[in-house]
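Lecture notes, structural biology module. Today: joint structure prediction for complexes of two components.
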Amino acid sequence: MTRKFFTGAAIAALVGLAACEKNLEVTNPNSGDTKRVLGTPNDAEALLGTYFKRFMSGVYGNGTDLEGMANVMSLENYSSLANNCQNQRAPFSGAANDNSPGNACRGEQFRLYSYMAEVDRVASSFLAQVEGGLTLGSVARDNRDKAYAEFLRGLARGYVSLMHDSAAVVSTATGPQEAGDLLGYKAVNDSAMAAFQRALDLTALSSNTAEGFPLPSDWIPSPTGMNKEEFSKLIRSYRARLRADVARTPAERAAVSWPAVIADVQNGITADHLITTSTTSGPSPSWRNTYLTFGLWHQMTPFIIGMADTSGSYAAWIAQPVSQRGSGNNGFFMVTPDQRFPQGLTRAAQQADFTLSSCQTPSTECKRYYVNRPSGADQYAGLGFGWSNYDNVRFYSWKIAGDGTARNGATAFITKAEMDMLEAEGQYRAGNFAAAGALINKTRVKNGLPPITAFNATSPVPGGSACVPKVPVGPNFTTIACGNLFEALKYEKRIEEAYTHYAAWYLDERGWGDLPEGTPLFWAVPYQDLQARGYTTSQIYGAGPGAGNAPNSTAGKSTYGW
Amino acid sequence: MNPMRLLHRARWIFPAVLGALLTVAATGAQAQNAVITGKVTSEAGQPLQFANVYITELSISVPTNETGNYTLVIPAARVSGQAVQLRSRAVGYKPTAVPLTIRAGNQTFDFSLKQDLNRLSEIVVTGSIEGTERSKVPFSVGRLTAEDIPVPSIDPLTALAGKVAGMRVARTGGKPGSTPEILLRGPTSLNASGRETGPLIIVDGAIQRVGSLEEIGGLDIESVEVVKGAAGASIYGSTAANGVIIIKTKRGATREGVNVSFRSEYGISDLSSIDYGAPINHHLQLDETGTRFCIQGSSNIANCSRTTPWMAEIYRINNVNADTIRTPYSLQWNAPAFSGGELLNVYQSNVWPGERYNSIAQVVSRNPVTLNQIDVSGRSGSVRYYVSGSFTSEEGSIQGLKGSQQKRARINLDYDVRSNWTFSLSSLFDRANTDLRNGGSSNGSIFGQLLRGAPAGTDYLAIDTLGRPIIRGGGANLRGTGNGGGTFLYDQQNYFSDQTANRYLATIASTYTPSEWATIEGTYSYDNRQRGNNSYEVKGYRTFKASDADNFGQQTLSDRAEEAMNAQISATLRKQLRSDLSGKLNFRALYDQDILTSNSGTGEQFVVKDVYTLSNTKTNQTVSSYDQTIKNMGFVGGANLDLKGRYIVEGTYRYDGSSLFGAGNRWAPFGRFSGVWRISEEPWYNIPGLTDFRIRSSVGSAGNTPRFDAQYETYSCSTSGCSLGQAGNRNLKPETTTEVDAGTDFTLFNRLGVEFTYVNSSTKNQILNVSTPASLGFSSQWQNAGTLQNKTFELALNLPLVTSKDLQWNVRGTYDRTRTYITRLDVPEYFASANTGNGTGSFFKITAAPGKLDGFQINRYGNVYGRKFYKNCGDMPSSVQGQCGEGRAYQINDQGWVVWTGEGNSWRDGITKNLWQTKLSANDSPWNFPLSFGHPIVDRPLAGQPGEKVGALHILGNTLPDFRFGLNSTLTYKRLSLYGLLDGTIGHEINNQGEGWGLLDFSSATFDQGAATVETAKPTGYGWRAGGSEGAGTGGFYDQLGPNNYNVENGSYAKLRELSLSYRFGKIGGVGDWSASFIGRNLLTLTKYSGFDPEVGVSGGQAGSGLINQVDAFGFPTLRTFTFSVSSRF
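The predicted structure, tokenised, for the full assembly:
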């Protein structure tokens, strides 16, 4: 009896377990998974189509990013705020890029890296799905979408190669649980260039038909309709930027394939590339908004903008040791013929020349790039060298569109001027000084500066004592003199690209040798990724450090002596 | 049957069953009977009310009345001259029995019961395979009955605070309607986000997956059993690693008739103090009369050329016939320059001119507390019933807030179908209304706004010229810095947020005993809670700046439906294997399912005023929804052997499946093996003075399930598109706690009952959210990756000091000490937050590293990490110590901090030598970091060392207490009874974030300099940040609210948690059994903690509990209550 009972119970239990196993399967109805998200052509396209916005969010979408640090380190911006580690990366501090677990800048140092990896992965997963048989309905559409995915891979790999010493690159054959090996930044950049080329090739194979281009308008939200020609131009412009800006040192910058850069620029955008931002559906660049806020986030240091001065202020400022520049809490006032700055011989005159009200109509470009701040809006916090009367307000009309905080509308993320200067640098390095000079003169003349006529590497820019730019002169760098053709190029590029794209000055200055001495040249693989891969954070990948600065990973004494 | 269909059918099953039972109840019979009468008293001769007199063989029992008398009536049909045992038992006394021959007519038997100090004769049902006499239970069980809870609480668990060793219960937020947090022994999960940290709670067989404990009702409780860890809770499987609490509610009497009881308690609650220590001094510049504030100048207007009285300015900005206010003037600081953020020449030293207000006193009030209950119980034929209705209301202590109200009804029925077959129904309906507002403007925390931004000169009761409460009473432009500025009473008239919850809980249980050797039981529970929230700002809501969303009103509606069912069936087989050896087998199968559905919608800008529907809004209408289903099942087998009543061994095995486990690990085993040796029952035992001596030991395992979404791969999708979330993990397992529970119980000289328990538990397979390589795209994955260990000592004492007939004085004490260690971590160490948005992101360090730091074991869980200011010369790096001391460059100031003064100076010279703005440059600083004169110095690496310039992290303390104690005493003289409970939590640290905010906003009286001398006065920067160039994270007591050794304080406290004085009148006018009591709760807190209340914490987060997240972040303090109660029985 007992035996029968237990036998029966055991059988019942086994049957019960088998039935229960199925009953315990529950689907998560609140979130998709890869199987569902990439399951149909429409859903797969819907996911892929949002990933340019995701890329933008990773690069520009949050103040918790490297850009705040990089802009302070390169003197493009100055802030004494601890927020986003700006003050920890103040130039001349010798502060290392701390990569220790839990460091204060962990969020900032991981954002670009992680977002770009996600964009690369999604684009690769989409391509793998297509390789696996998913079709979007036509060859033209397949090629269009594949081109877009390759474009995203190029962007993701390119941007991570700009800032970090290593990253992983995934292919369509990389399994969903495979992380891929870390590659040095040059290899990562090379893979970006290759992805861009595939994007161009696939774009060429598609067509401007209903099934092909233009891209759906929300894939790259822009006033420019992305037919295949416009899309190709955009790819080439990004490629030009990323090919040149990956260089860490003057030697690497010199070794850039400048003919390739020139070719891309000449076949790239023909006007500023605008992105239509939206705070609700993205992309929404938080940093740009922050830089258009009067406050401690945004002070303009005179190191570079002072080069436009013709009043003697800059000469006096440069004559001081760095630690004493700006002391006395007086800010920095300058007079310049450069029309991008407020005009007038006194502060009051400059304030009267240009006020923000002149660009408070949405989509109205500001009269000047810089404003002499209204009285009471001065921000004198932190180190004296960070203080001046000026703020960059070039995109203020975008910021105050709508209710003043909307940040909705079109604004530039690649300027034609930046592209022109890239070509100019290529021409200059090739010895084509006249071609370079012609490009430099485009914005110089437009902004009231006399055109350069002596097309060589040594002649000072015209203007005599009122020349722009003026640069510190070695070996002591306590006096200034008129800059030459290349200095004019650098000046134009800085002023024109300031706050238009990610770490604009930082990326150029490390290649030009202009970063303050001791400034880190790149960031290590974030410790979060090293740990997830089972590495210690002291392990070094590429040329960079796991913690602190590795030898030769910081800038030497700059071209200007700082 | 499909469980869903079962759930739906349950809605009509219960009414049908109820009707059938009531019909049966009407039948009954009267005939010639055997009547047994007598009296039950204690050894001291005190009559024992509610003692039980019973005959097991006939399944008959009756309670004694208030005089200790009982009458047991045996129906004639059952009278046959049989020999039985007449038994008597009472809570706290040893049972006894006398032989009885049942015959018609009257017989009398009196009982004198001995005290059972360790209550070893109680029947315990939790954790064992069958209800078992406590002396034979092999693990530690806390058990309380209604008699142990003379001061009831709204919920059934708060009343347990301080009464059970190893059990920590606290309302870390005193807001009415909040649920208490419970921690048994120690935490078992390193990352409990989205999961429970408290124990599994079962009420009358219903597993509590739904709702809030306060809905259960504190006055319906008959008994509570607490099994504190896996060693005892293995039988409950994968959801019991945090322990189990079994609550049984009252049931009908076993004798015929109807008993009616009522209890009415009414009183008030308030804050224990309205004196927080708000500053009476300010740092603003006054005019020459000392009555008006200077307004900052501009390019054409000199500073202080315009002045204003404080309240005149408040009225000016508020008195606007619009939805917004005027822009406040910026007032001038009492020193010329604030530029650069340098706060070194400004002093918080000017007394507010004119009238000053205590803003806390202005907004708090004493509000009523009500607990009313009436119940009817009795027996009619084969049906026993207990029916109760109650109303509880707790309005809280903030003017205008409504608090929480609950209306509750309970029906418990037991129907004896046959002598060996019973059928029971337990049912509850509760309707709760809760005011969800936090009291502050824009629904912010009123305590945050009161303590941060309420200037002493602001009259918050002020009404503007249009009869409206003012909406701005301070803030940024009125002070050089400072947040807040909002007011409190405006929102209470113009912002509303209510929650209504209806809960229906019912359990059907049946027990069938076909023979002495077998019992079959079945239980089915259904729990349903429907909750609706409605929050809105009225159209015309006023704000500082124009805001369409606010000024035109906005609304959020949400609903949440929770539905749970659990069912189990079990069979228990018993056999007398030998004359002195008995055995039991138990088999059990269980299933439970929980379904949660929630929806919410928002809208802005009402079309029509005073119409609060989303369809009446014009813009930004959004919707969202959430849905989850959880299914668990388990199979249990257990065996018990009892040899000679002295050696008891028991083993259980449970195999659990859960939809929460990964598909590759859907099932998990748990089990227990345990034993008891009742040494004092041995024939050879003869130790005088040491009785009821037994030792027990149990080794068992139980689990914690993953959160619902942990196993799934997820994408986050919104209007801006989709992004990758977390990677899935099909191999995710439950956390498994294996616990060893060993202890002894004994009685010394019949005077002192002692229970001692040592526990060592390890929870393996910690479920952690682990970062994945970035190139996977998914940012994290839930993985099993660590082990958490708890070591616990528990001691419970019961000491009856006086036991005479008229005077009894009993003292009970509990003590427990738990240490929690991370003994294994399979992922890199990481920091975890304390779940506040400010400054506590790196509060805890999750590490298994060995060794000690700052005197703390590094791998101890709960260690608080933060910055450390030097407090003595020995704290400094050895290379600098030589420069520290009186007359040297570094000195200890009057507040006990090491400060830099420079050689030849004293810390007293700041003003007299004008040194406060001097600095030691980075180049001259040993730390390559500038120091400001007179300011405390953050420990950081010396120049050239790794991480230089950044403050070093230290262990500042631990949020888990060194030990806890509880002490309760009952003194009864005849009809007068005095009861008190003191409980303490000792040796833990709290991050006083309120003080940190106060430093930022100059709202901390600590730095009022009104009474300071020129030697001791400190500038505002001393408490805030050491200077504009020294950024956050690098110095200053405020330091962006990060923990440091200034704001992390010892949070030890002892609370006089309960006090009551009761008098039992007995019959009044020959009717009832009347009692009256004065009751106080949380009357006194003994602590050195400087915040409002040390019983604080932030719930949720990775730690999952406010008892671990010990951050004082402006939660509602625990309220003090004074009440008077009247009760009677009829």
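Point to remember: The radius of gyration of chain A is 26 Å.
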